[in-house]
């Protein structure tokens, strides 16, 4: 069953407004969540683990300041700005920061915005893609609650710490969005709850032993996701993770371990948004041609099964925009549960 983009956006916006958010911030947040669904990133979509259920529960627990208005700090002549998100809606603050990075890039050639005292912003690629649509190259990163032992460590300290990076190359931009861990945490928990196996080199228990096969959710909660690169080469992901965190420290991010939402509903993170013009050496049209030629050359080294970063998501988005967003039974159950919690009427599916 599918649901139209407009219907899902309207429902999400109504839910967020019912919690006390202003119409504009509720709509921005809803659009960011639906953008993830359009690209097939359902874990960060409306019915995903970081979607409306989390938003409703954490707002009612006092962990999200639903009426917060972010505060911007800027220095005259600087291409860097800082935003205090004041614990408000994560996607709304993030979108404002991303556009500010673009505004600075228009003025200075490059723009950078740090955000602190923030909440989770959903899928990182959403904000990069907004800047790509404005003609910039872009990147963003975020800290997150602790789920990983540092490489060689023995206690959980680091988060999944995602990074997204994109270049405007033709109709479908090249965009990578990834955690600096082997995978995000949620797939392991989905498998555990369904009684399905997880692969080796994904999670370890609190003693550092690799977990594989069918694992209980309790063992995952006590364990650690592995850094990108796994058991043998995890120093790569762990090192990238630490550098992203230190970059965020400069912009007001936490100096200490960030508790995850399995420990407390109050989980404050920080983010960095960057945008830069692509016409600093070549005119924009020539710069775009160079990017497209480079991509074309890469494609000659594979067949139709070789997908470039963001290509699978772009195909899903085109299909969803045309035919509606595909939603599984469990996602519809989540939507109905949210509707019951908020007293709203749930949207109806479009049967294919």
Could you name the ranges where pLDDT drops below 50 across 5 or more consecutive residues?
none
Count of extended strands: 12
Distance between the termini: 6 Å
- What gross morphology would you assign? globular
From the alpha-carbon coordinates, what is the Rg to the nearest angstrom? 20 Å
Sheet with most strands: strand arrangement: 2-3-4-11-5-6-7
Could you tell me the CATH topology label of the largest domain: Ribosomal Protein S8, Chain: A, domain 1
**Strand pairing plus helix content: what structural class?**
alpha+beta
Q: Helical proportion?
A: 40-55%
Please provide the ordered H/E string of secondary-structure elements: EHHHEEHEHEEEHEEHEHHEHHEH
Q: Per CATH, which architecture of the largest domain?
A: 2-Layer Sandwich
The number of helical elements comes to: 12
The profile of the biggest β sheet is: 7 strands, mixed
How much strand?
15-25%
Q: What would the average pLDDT be, to the nearest integer?
A: 95
Task: Provide the domain count.
Answer: 3
CATH class of the largest domain: Alpha Beta
What is the secondary structure topology, with strand pairs?
Elements: E1 2-3, H1 5-18, H2 23-38, H3 52-60, E2 71-74, E3 80-84, H4 90-108, E4 110-118, H5 125-133, E5 137-142, E6 163-167, E7 174-178, H6 186-194, E8 198-204, E9 210-213, H7 217-222, E10 224-225, H8 230-233, H9 235-250, E11 269-276, H10 284-299, H11 311-323, E12 325-326, H12 329-342
Parallel strand pairs: 3-4
Antiparallel strand pairs: 1-12, 2-3, 4-11, 5-6, 5-11, 6-7, 8-9, 8-10
Helix pairs in contact: 1-2, 2-4, 4-5
């Amino acid at each position: 069953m599918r649901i139209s983009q407009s219907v899902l956006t309207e429902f999400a916006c109504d839910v967020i407004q019912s919690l006390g958010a202003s119409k504009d911030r509720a709509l921005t947040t809803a659009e960011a969540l639906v953008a993830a669904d359009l690209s097939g990133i359902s874990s960060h979509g409306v019915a995903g683990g970081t979607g409306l259920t989390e938003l409703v529960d954490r707002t009612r627990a006092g962990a999200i300041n639903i009426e917060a208005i972010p505060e911007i700090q800027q220095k005259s002549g600087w291409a860097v700005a800082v935003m205090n998100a004041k614990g408000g809606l994560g996607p709304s603050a993030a979108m404002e920061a991303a556009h500010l990075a673009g505004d600075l890039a228009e003025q200075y050639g490059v723009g950078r915005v740090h955000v602190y005292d923030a909440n989770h912003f959903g899928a990182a690629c959403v904000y990069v893609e907004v800047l790509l649509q404005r003609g910039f190259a872009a990147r963003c990163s975020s800290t997150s609650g602790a789920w990983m032992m540092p490489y060689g460590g023995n206690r959980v300290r680091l988060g999944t710490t995602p990074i997204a990076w994109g270049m405007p190359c033709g109709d479908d931009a090249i965009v990578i969005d990834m955690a600096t861990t082997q995978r995000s945490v949620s797939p392991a928990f989905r498998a555990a709850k369904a009684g399905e196996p997880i692969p080796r080199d994904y999670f370890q228990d609190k003693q550092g032993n690799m977990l594989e096969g069918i694992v209980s959710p309790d063992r995952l909660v006590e364990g650690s996701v592995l850094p990108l690169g796994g058991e043998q080469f995890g120093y790569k992901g762990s090192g990238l993770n630490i550098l992203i965190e230190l970059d965020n420290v400069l912009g007001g991010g936490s100096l200490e371990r960030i508790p995850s939402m399995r420990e407390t509903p109050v989980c404050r993170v920080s983010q960095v948004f960057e945008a830069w013009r692509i016409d600093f050496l070549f005119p924009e049209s020539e710069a775009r041609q160079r990017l497209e030629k480079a991509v074309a050359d890469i494609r000659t080294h594979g067949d139709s099964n070789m997908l470039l970063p963001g290509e699978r998501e772009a195909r899903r988005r085109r299909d969803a925009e045309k035919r509606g967003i595909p939603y599984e039974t469990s996602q519809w159950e989540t939507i109905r549960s949210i509707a019951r919690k908020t007293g709203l009427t749930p949207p109806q599916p479009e049967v294919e």
